[in-house]
Amino acid sequence: MCFGDCANGTGGFNPTLSEAGFGRVKDSQDTLGKYELAFSDNRVLSLDGKIDRLDIGNFGEEKAAIVFDYKRRDTSFSFSKFYHGLNMQLPIYILAVRNASKAEVKNAVGAFYMPVEINTPTATLDKLSDKADIFEYKAKGIFNGEFFQQLDGTATSGWSKFYSFRVSSKDGQYGNYSASSVLKPDDFESLLRFAESKIIEIAEEFASGKIDVRPYRINTQSPCSYCKYQSVCRFDWQINDYNFLESLKKPQVLEKMGTGNG
Fold it and tell me: 186-224, pLDDT tens digit by residue?
């Protein structure tokens, strides 16, 4: 069921807040209040951050929110890095909206990276009209699939023009599940529960003094390739060991979270 102005636009969400801070952020235009998590020993972890844009929609008696984080270039959500605690920004923002003390909308249903630096397309005059209808820089992230119509009411069949999800023409459900931003409602909630536990796990390790010099490596990817401090770093790949992490696809991550192996 579609609420809001879904049929005549891209959806029922409207830009409402910009630079919305949570925690102790002094230069925010709006504040969502404190976002705190409890350690197992009753200590409290306070998280600080700033959300670039928060869109809110009124759907019947319920309000829901979508988070947007601006990036210079096209950016995707990495389920593999998320599972290993390396790509937590979007889940943290969703959790902050849901749990911050002053947030008016507790039902955050998704978060997306939005590219702002795009290349100007080129075309010959006879192909110019075809190029004008192509939007190559879609918002990519994670969201509760129950809200796909509210996100893009024009996506009645095939891929959404503005978001990375696909609707099947057969039954009106989202398709290409393993390659899109969409998550089934249960999977979406499982991901957020996992994210919260992972945040606490990482913070407790830091608090206990675990700061080993062991940069991660997933296949051939490592932060060392773009690190600005290699000249003063104590890590030497010829002597030290990388923290080798398993490369995982979206279905594998969801399976691991569902079986409690996370």
Answer: 999 999 999 999 999 999 998 889 888 889 999 998 988
Strand partners, 159: 166
* Two tokens, residue 140: 């990519």
Model confidence over 44-58: pLDDT tens digits?
Answer: 999 999 999 999 998
Residue 136: the pLDDT is: 64
Q: 63, 105 in Cβ contact below 8 A?
A: yes
* C-alpha triplet 218, 223, 227: angle, nearest 5°: 165
**Partners of residue 227 on adjacent β-strands:** none
Domain boundaries, the chain: 14-187
> What value does the mean pLDDT take over residues 59-75?
90
Long-range contacts of 247-256, Cβ-Cβ distance < 8 Å, separation of 24 or more = 247/80, 247/218, 247/219, 248/79, 248/80, 248/83, 249/79, 249/80, 249/178, 250/79, 250/177, 250/178, 250/179, 251/177, 251/178, 253/79, 253/80, 253/82, 253/83, 254/79, 254/187, 254/190, 254/191, 256/83
Query: Identity (one letter) of the amino acid at 232?
Result: V
Residues 6 or more apart from 28 whose CB is under 8 A from it? 19, 20, 21, 50
